[in-house]
Amino acid sequence: MTRIKLPLPPLKLPQWPEWLDRRTLILLIIATIFLMTLTWSEPLQQPNQPESSLAAGATLSPSPENTSSLPPEWEHNSEQTNGILLGGVILVLIIVIGSYSVMRRKT
Hints:
Blueprint: H1 22-41, H2 72-76, H3 80-106
């Protein structure tokens, strides 16, 4: 007795939404990479060390030669400008590339 094999119906894969075309997908990927880069570029905060772990004989004295016209907050947070600069450059690139693609599409 042989069994008759019926053909299987075709698989119905989920459809992509209409708004998700190639350009939107590329923009989402770039935004994700940008956010990951900003997240990983932040310096890790060092845990506060107890006072006993510092050298007992070390004392800090202010040196008169090391006077700066910058506020102390700017001197201690100088690394934050790297992330701001990177974000600004990427935003300018997005605007320039988007404007170029719109101009090219209209001609």
